Amino acid sequence: MAAGKPVVMVTLVSSDGQSFQLLEEAALLSAMVRDTIQIGQGRGPAGIPIRNITGQTLSMVVVYCNKHYTAAAAADGDDAADEEKKVANKKQLREWDEQFINLEQDKLYDILVAANNLGIDGLVDLCCWRFADMMKGKSASEIRVKLGIRDDFTSEQRAQIEKDSPWVWSRTT
Amino acid sequence: MATGRRRRRRRRRLRRQRRDAVIAAVATSTVEDVPDHVLQVILLRVDSSSSLIRAAASCRRWRRVVADASFLHSFRSLHGTHRVAGRYHTIDPIYEPPLPRGNFVFLPSTSLTGVTVDDSRCFSLDFLPDGVSSWELVDCRGSLVLLSKKSPGFGGVATNRRFTDLVVCEPLTRRYQVIPCPPDLEFFMCLGVFLLDSGFDLATSGGMGIPNFRVISVLFDRHRWLYYRGMPMSFMLSSVGDGSWRVLQGETIDDVDLPEWMELIKFVGRANACLYWGIENEDGATLVLDENTLEFSITMFPESIWAPYNKWTFRVIGGNGVLRVVRVIGNDLKVFRQLAGRGEWMLEKMLRLPDATRGLPGREEWFFQHEAMIVAANEEYVLVTPREKTWVFSVELDTMEVEREHERNKYPGPAYQYESLPWPPALQVCVQ
């Protein structure tokens, strides 16, 4: 973090009234926060109300933003000199990401929808990666269970899929 | 008084807030809250096409998203050729008796975690008419596999033989299209049949049929006006919108002349959209068919490369636009590479086979008295066997590393790369 720069904090308020304070620069990872601040709102003590996102979810999003902001700031401070260290840091962040997102469907959907509404591309990507990972090697019905999908095919459609590719019902591992 | 009212109001507001919080906390997001464009991102991250098709069988909305032409296009370009599901390994009856269930085995690529043993079931092609053992696998392209009917009299001996019925199929969707041999071509000898890249054209790939395909069959005939010479003929077969097929063009090429005996001509490889046939006793002359222009020509390889020519020791391979020739000369495996632009050739790699194989399990002292044979060659590796006994080992072209204990060495014959993503029509079912 550059010295001398004033530290600006932003407050995000969840739909259930919980407020979270974080550095403005960390909050700027969200396109929605960026837009709000750009039109000159959200800097006041009332904070930025985040509709449809509960405190539980928002707290996770804030953790993600803080981590990624500090990682980016540290990388900027290092200069380009130490290539090896940069790669190591990147790997570390990736490991942190994987640990962070190691969740089951309920929470994961909450975070994905929240990240999408807030416009945090990195987090959307991370959630998508996790969902795709959860499908790996699973049969169609296992995918349904794992991801909470309701089977809405008619019996004729199911028969047609069964005829075309019966192997979709079996798993690969 | 006033403060008391305010306090009451505040208390009420707090209570309301708390109640709202409870409702909000209970109402969690589900898959229905994920918009289509985000769902696409999830599905693009899926690492294998078989997983993608499984996901497309989970519900109607997911199937619609996957079947979308632009989505499939992105999926293909994102995963590209890395999404090779595996290889069909064939068994050349010259080296070993064919397997009871057809002359091929599918081996999933090791880099692909999504496809394993269970998927082999759909890759076994057990849905083909007349049983899989009556067909011989001759080519793969994209998601399609081309097979030709074994001619009974010939015991299904590879390459040089009569033109027969063909079938094009897509293993993952278990669809196939039989191409009966046109009656006027029935008695022609065949130098080979190949699948060509079909122009990916959504507009013409009709609903339920299998995807567009183009098959070229290269036939052999007596030369029109040269005595004791032969000439090639090409026939292009192509699918049409309604799932049937037709002959697009047939051409007899009499400005290219070949030996009268077809046995002297052997298919030696496919490289950079050209097909190559080596010709014996013709001083390095090689028949070339350009897949794009469909024109035949004769190319002369320099003597340093072709001599001494022998159909068992000469293969042409491609890769990244570079043309290479793999040879066994005096039991040295040599890789020649054509230099860009000038057409000159250089010796790129060399391996002394008797020394390199020493110590491998099953290696006998009496091997390599005669020149070893190249069983098959592709961009990645070459399969070689000593002439004395079928004892196949592979040579990795990158490292020239010799391996004996490799699954692929169990199947002496060419291997065909198979990419498993089906074309959109197959997924269109149940979307409407």
Per CATH, the superfamily of the largest domain in chain A is Potassium Channel Kv1.1, Chain A
CATH-level-2 architecture of chain B: 7 Propeller
Helix share bin of chain A: 55-70%
- The percent range for strand residues of chain A is 5-15%
Under CATH at level 1, the class of chain B stands as Mainly Beta
The number of helices of chain B is 9
In terms of quaternary structure, the protein is heterodimer
Structural class of chain B: alpha+beta
Which bin fits the share of residues in helices of chain B? 10-25%
Largest sheet geometry of chain A: 3 strands, mixed
Count of DSSP strands of chain B: 25
The CATH topology of chain B corresponds to Methylamine Dehydrogenase, Chain H
CATH class of the largest domain in chain A: Alpha Beta
Give an overview of the whole structure.
The complex is a heterodimer of chains A (173) and B (432). Chain A has 173 residues and is mainly alpha-helical. Chain A has two domains: 9-77 and 84-135, Potassium Channel Kv1.1, Chain A; 139-173, no CATH class. Chain A contains eight helices and three strands, in the order ββααβαααααα. Chain A has helices at 24-27, 31-38, 55-77, 83-100, 105-118, 121-135, 140-147, 155-164, and strands at residues 9-13, 19-23, 48-49. A three-stranded mixed sheet of chain A has the order 2-1-3. In chain A, helix 3 packs antiparallel against helix 4 (83-100). Chain A is flat and about 65 Å long. Chain B is of the alpha+beta class and 432 residues long. Mean pLDDT of chain B is 79; it is low at 111-118, 155-160 and 199-209. In chain B, strands 5, 8, 9, 10, 11 and 12 form a six-stranded antiparallel sheet that branches. Chain B has one domain (36-427): Methylamine Dehydrogenase, Chain H, CATH 2.130.10. In chain B, a hairpin with a 6-residue loop joins strand 9 and strand 10 (229-239). The chains are: A mainly alpha (173), B alpha+beta (432). Chains A and B meet through helix 5, helix 6, helix 7 and helix 8 of A and helix 1, helix 2, helix 3 and helix 4 of B.
